[in-house]
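Researcher: We plan to redesign the surface later, but first we want a full-length starting point. Tokens attached.
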């Protein structure tokens, strides 16, 4: 039996899914012996602040769109021959 694939979402949606999967797997595979462990702190932050992760992902997407637009402008703007 083949499992039906989940539909692919936007870049932001997929990035959030990836971050959550990494956080979940890190939490189950990692045994922290200190309270300052960066892995545990990052996983805890992602779990406690999912809205901030979503916002950071959206901001990253907007940054990439701006870079893409700038590159398109440079590529499509005719060069002067003076």
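Model: Full-length starting sequence:
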């Amino acid at each position: 039996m083949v499992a039906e694939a989940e539909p692919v979402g936007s870049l932001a949606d997929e990035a959030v899914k990836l971050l959550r999967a990494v956080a979940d797997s890190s939490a189950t595979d990692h045994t922290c012996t200190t309270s300052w462990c960066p892995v545990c702190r990052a996983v805890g932050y992602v779990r406690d602040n999912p809205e901030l992760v979503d916002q950071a992902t959206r901001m990253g997407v907007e940054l990439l769109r701006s870079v893409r637009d700038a590159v398109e402008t440079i590529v499509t703007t005719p060069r002067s021959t003076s």
